[in-house]
Amino acid sequence: MSGAAQVEIVEVGPRDGFQSIGPLIPTPTKIALIEQLHAAGIRRMETTSFVSASALPQLADAPAIVAAVARMPTLDSQVLVPTARHAERALAAGARHLSAVLSVSERHNMGNVRRTPMESVADYTQMVAMMPADASMRLNLATSFDCPHVGRIDRDAVLALLEPLVAASADVEIALCDTTGHADPAQVRGLFAAAADRFPQVRAWAFHGHDTYGLGAANVLAAWDVGIRIFDAAVAGLGGCPFAPGATGNVATEDLIWMFDHMGVETGIDLQKLVDAARAVAELPGAQVGGRVRQALGARACLAAS
């Protein structure tokens, strides 16, 4: 599709999705699913997270995952790190694309990493300083739209927190995250437009959304309308934040690929192979899945077979 508009999909199912599943997923199963997603054309993936094993035992195998994906040279594997200490662990394990996270909401940030947002800003500054020359950073700003404890987040609060974060480094990709899935298209469009206008020096912006109220794809399209071209999504709609009770999964990757394919936007991802991977993910014990395209294509296939 030469000359077509393009979008970059960041598959976050192996991190945001897997962390929400209760029964431990064997490491070889995780690696096999990551390989299946890669075979579908996904070239950027949040594969794991370096966090406390007692808090999220599902991700205790992070070093093994980093070692396995290192054998996939065409995969850009990013790993989530909530603190500088965990960033050190990730770098020591060989990770070279870190994804830092802090929350706009003080209550959410305290619940997540037991520190205030400004304390996390100081911690993030340490992360930026320790980054090797061959490594890159993404910054996830959680609860940019809504907090499970205090409700809707004021736009000015997001912009105010971005000031010291951008001052620490503008050479990062910043994702504004709808952690609870409460955002609406007008709010998404307005915040991204305001952030891009206030901080034109930021290298790139991304959107991370959940589908709690069925607006995941609509919010992605709203961000697209104001120039955002990087979107997080989770295969089969997996996801849910342990520190945001009631939040359901991320917007399903296959739903976004269906939408962008029909808009004539190039994704580089094979929808049928992706749906096959989504069906495998949906069979994981304890997986809570979402999305519509997987089910619609399955129903179409059953109708054709009959």
Automatic annotation (TrEMBL):
Could you tell me the Gene Ontology terms of the biological process aspect for this record?
Answer: ketone body biosynthetic process; L-leucine catabolic process
Q: Which GO terms describe its molecular function?
A: hydroxymethylglutaryl-CoA lyase activity; metal ion binding
**What Pfam families does the database record attribute to this sequence?**
HMGL-like
Question: InterPro entries from the xrefs?
Answer: Aldolase_TIM, HMGL, PYR_CT
Q: Print the keywords alphabetically.
A: Lyase, Metal-binding
Pyruvate carboxyltransferase domain residues: 7-275
Q: Does the keyword Lyase apply?
A: yes
The UniProt similarity line reads: Belongs to the HMG-CoA lyase family.
Protein name per the record? Hydroxymethylglutaryl-CoA lyase
Please give the organism.
Answer: Rhizorhabdus dicambivorans
